[in-house]
Design goal:
single chain; 401 residues; alpha/beta; Aspartate Aminotransferase, domain 1; Aspartate Aminotransferase, domain 2; 7-stranded mixed sheet; 15 helices; globular; binds pyridoxal-5'-phosphate
Amino acid sequence: MDMESVRSDFPTIRKNLGIYLDSACQSLRPDQVIQAMNDYYENFPACGGRSVHSMATKVSVAVDDARETMASFFGTDDPECYIFTKNTTEGLNTAAYGFGLKKGDVVVTTDSEHNSNHVPWMHLKDCIGIERRFSRSNKEGEFDIESFKSCMDRRVKVVSVQHTNNVTGCSVPVKAVTEIAHDYGATVIIDGAQAAAHRPVNLKDIDADIYCFSSHKMLGPSGMGVMYGKKEVLENLRPLTLGGGTVGLATYDSVTLAPIPDRFEAGLLNYSGIIGTKAALDYLSKIGMDNVKEWDNELMRRILGNLEDVKGLHIVGPDVAEKRSGVFSFNIDGLVSHDIAMMLDSMAGIMIRSGMHCAHPFYVSRAIDGSARASTYIYNSPEEIDIFTDTVRKIAETFGE
Ligand SMILES: Cc1ncc(COP(=O)(O)O)c(C=O)c1O
């Protein structure tokens, strides 16, 4: 990967607006994505899939094109199975509420899910009495297949697990999990928010029933996501939102749903977001997802090596670069994570995230108040990493206990 050439594509890097290490929240965007979105607003800012005039037709073609790019990026041959959402959270909610689960049905997740793959299930537990089971991770937050197997029996209707964790960076072997879940007749949902941006993901190979991710974590526009589902699964899933665009025909007393994907995409869509998402996938394809993954690992090896001997610094999760997927979570004795984040910003213009990262059960179960989190992506340089680690060292030595 030509890192300098990649960096030159990002306006905030060209303008020297600071060292951005918050990509697990939302990534920076390259010129190519911004230009594609502007092109929509400047040259064909119409609605897709409805009007038949030439500008609208151009939008419809661009939307179809984006779906085709998506299918090829994720190794499937069914573009209509990619549903545009506003984020991973919306995809996961659509899946959770769409299966029509009943009292006593069992849903298995891991014990360290993001709230987006925890709170909807809690709500279903409180409202209709589904049963929750948690696959327990080890001390470092790594998935334990034996614990997962012990959760499984014929009452399990859904297995819904993260692909990669947003605190520890640990990944779940989703293909193996899917195989086991399918043996018990369960449907499999994967929260791919952190994985889709950082590694090659082949959805045909994984074979999960639903896979959700966010475009804004992978160079795409804010508030754009995707829910992929196998055709036969989507056919039996109830849409979360109904209205314009989701129906074939509605009379005073009947409604027929539109075919997939339209039935899940209610109302006018975020067309510039869809077009920007395609541009982001094109950009990542050019770099190659294997190279993206390797760059994350290289930067993480540097972080871990540079900070190895800092007194009072504790890493949350494993200290093995290849297990972290570009996410470095840590605490410093005597300091609150928000203070670490503010000091990094004021001392060296370094932007990280702090707090519980919407992974409350993970922190509460380990009696940790939260953590600072630096997360890397393709545009971060080794020099930026050195500034980050030098500043962390200074903070620990000056302000830590
Ligand atoms: C693992 C994981 N799942 C789900 C989400 C939710 O993503 P979004 O806010 O884009 O819906 C995030 C966001 O950080 C995440 O890291």
